[in-house]
Amino acid sequence: MARPREFDRDEALKHAISVFWAKGFEAASTEDLLAAMKIGRQSLYDTFGDKRRLYLEALARYQNVSVANQIALLESEASPLSGIRWMLMAMAEADPAFRALGCMGVGAISEFGQADAEISAMGRQSGEVLHAAIEKALRKARAEREVSADIDISGAAYFIQSTMLGLKVSAKAGLDTTGLRQIVEFAMEALKRR
């Protein structure tokens, strides 16, 4: 008879996310993961498979939660342009210790690039979900005359996503709140130009 699991799987996964987020895939040792997750090696293999399978599950969870949070911020304001601003500003005004971690998704892009098809596909999929939400906000902003009628919706959505990536990298590199806010304000002014 199989021995019952003696740990909370979801809690263990949260701890694995923290390790991978801080260290990336390669630098996170199995020992780091076991210590953070408070489980034994056999429990890791029995429950999550190998380190790579654990990383993929952790990255998927991180990306799903991150994108859902960003979309919630985007949709939290009555004005679509204010929603975009709030989504960007939330990154600029986050706790500096949190900002210093950067983004696990950006870390995966930096570590793997296009070399790992599965990880690359995960990043593309979450990017497409966010892109669609931003496009929706921009179409609404255009309809409400918050942005120019001739704005390239797809190009503007990519611009916002690139701004988000830049904010995350700049924050990890140590840019302070004032500098991050300036990036957000500049991006918002660029969207409003007619």
Description:
By secondary structure, this protein is mainly alpha-helical. It has a domain at about 60-190: Tetracycline Repressor, domain 2, CATH 1.10.357.10. It contains 10 helices and no strands. The protein is elongated. The N and C termini lie far apart (about 70 Å).
The pLDDT mean sits at 93
Which fold name fills CATH's third level, the topology of the domain at 60-192? Tetracycline Repressor, domain 2
Secondary structure category: mainly alpha
CATH superfamily membership of the domain at 60-192, which one?
Answer: Tetracycline Repressor, domain 2
Shape: elongated
Q: Give the biggest beta sheet.
A: none
Distance between the termini: 70 Å
Estimate what percentage of residues fall within beta strands. under 5%
Q: Quick one: how many beta strands?
A: 0
Poorly predicted runs of 5 or more residues: none
Spell out the helices and strands N to C. Answer: HHHHHHHHHH
Element layout with pairings:
Layout: H1 9-27, H2 30-37, H3 41-48, H4 51-74, H5 80-92, H6 96-100, H7 104-112, H8 117-143, H9 153-172, H10 177-192
Describe the structure concisely:
The protein has helices at residues 9-27, 30-37, 41-48, 51-74, 80-92, 96-100, 104-112, 117-143, 153-172, 177-192.
Characteristics of this structure?
single chain; 194 residues; mainly alpha; Tetracycline Repressor, domain 2
